[in-house]
Design a protein that fits this description.
172 residues, alpha+beta, Double Stranded RNA Binding Domain, Ribosomal Protein S5, domain 2, 2 domains, Small ribosomal subunit protein uS5c, Ribosomal_uS5_N, ribosomal protein, RNA-binding, ribonucleoprotein
Length: 172
Amino acid sequence: MNKLSKINNNIKKLNLKKLKLKERIIRITRVSKVTKGGKRINFQAVIALGNEKGKIGIGIAKAKDTRDAIEKAKTNGYKTIINFPVTKSLSINHSIIGEYKSSKILVKPAKPGSGILAGGSARIILEVAGIKNVVAKQFGSNNRLNNAYALFNALKDSIKKLRIDKLRRLNN
């Protein structure tokens, strides 16, 4: 990496930190690695970041202390931030399906005032994203991390579909 790209990356990080993102912990687990000398205990943190206006990111990190793991996960979360379009009724534009490993999630728009009908990590991510009227159903694995990534992939795919729709409208 040359010096210019490092400077640009630092500028991007500073701009993201100025966003004042809200953070919610999805999961903190104790992870142990068995070695010849004994067990090494680390902590893994999974965090959702968002500004409640459509920007969301997910961070995951391990460290010897929970506080350090949370801080590392925050910095990793800043790197994955995406800008997701939220409708005027604080919902999503259309139904979306996301998959990650053995987890599958279906997210549908709901009527205004119905709230977030979702469980586990999906509820946390949708709250942080600022989506208030939505229904989500998880299939397959009950793993919070996999379900979080499945929802994140669904939201990313939705952004791609919206861009394709705009391009089609421009060409016709």
